[in-house]
Amino acid sequence: MAAADVDAVARIWREGWADAHLGHVPAALVAARTSGSFTERAHDRVDDTIVATRADAVAGFVMIDGDQVDQLYLDRAARGSGIGAVLLGAEEQAIVAAGYGRAWLAVATGNNGARRFYERQGWADEGPFVHHAPTPDGGVAVDCHRFVSAAAARARQT
Fold first, then answer.
1. Which pLDDT value is given to residue 154?
2. Who's near 120: CB < 8 A, 6+ residues apart?
3. Which residues touch 56 (CB under 8 Å, ≥6 apart)?
4. How many CA atoms lie less than 13 Å away from 78 in the CB half-sphere?
5. DSSP characters over 49-70
6. Is the dihedral of CA 83, 86, 91, 94 positive or negative?
7. What positions does the domain N-acetyltransferase occupy (predicted)?
8. Residue 118: which domain range?
C-alpha cells in the first residue's frame, strides 16, 4: 500500500467493519471505531498492507500482523468478484515467506458471511477464543473464532 491509498483503505475498512461487526461486538468497540480511527490506523499500517486495485481504484486490502491475517476488507462493489480470495492467498504467501508455519485470523462470533468465505477458501475453524481488539484505551474483549489455513503449512513444507 502507498500513502496515497490511505483514504480509500480507511473508507473500505470503515464500511466493511460496520457491515461485518455491528451487532456482533461489544458497544465499547463500536464506540472506539470512529471514522477517524480507521484513517489513523490505515496510516499506521501502510507497510504491512497489500491492496488490490480495479480500474485504478483500491478495491480491497489485507493487513498482516506476524502470522495473523489481521484485516481483510473489500469495497462493497468488489464483493463476490474473487478479489478477496486473491488477497487472502497473497497474504498467506507473505506469512509463509516470513517463516511462519501457518496463518490464522479471528472472526467475530456471529459474522456468518466471513465464516462462509474463509471456509470456502479452505480455512478451518479451530474454535472459540477471546480476541482483544486494540483501542486507544487498551482493548476490548470480543468473542471470536480462530480460523487457520492449512495452505500456509503445506506451502512451508514444499
1. 54
2. none
3. none
4. 23
5. EEEEEETTEEEEEEEEETTEEE
6. negative
7. 1-149
8. 3-157
Count: domains in the chain: 1
> At 88, is the secondary structure helix, strand, or coil?
helix
Cα–Cα distance measured from residue 14 to residue 42, given in angstroms and rounded to the nearest whole number:
10
pTM for this model (two decimals): 0.90
Q: Which of 4, 31, 6 is nearest to 18 (CA)?
A: 31
Mean pLDDT of the chain: 92
Instruction: Write the single-letter amino acid at 89.
Output: G
Tens of pLDDT, residues 56-70: 999 999 999 999 999
For the stretch 22-26, contacts whose Cβ atoms lie closer than 8 Å and that sit 24 or more positions apart, written own/partner, are 23/110, 24/108, 24/109, 24/110, 24/111, 25/108, 25/133, 25/140, 25/142, 26/140, 26/141, 26/142
- Whether the per-residue pLDDT at 150 is higher than 90: the answer is no
| Dihedrals phi, psi of 139, to nearest 5 degrees | 165, 160
For position 16, which CATH number holds? 3.40.630.30
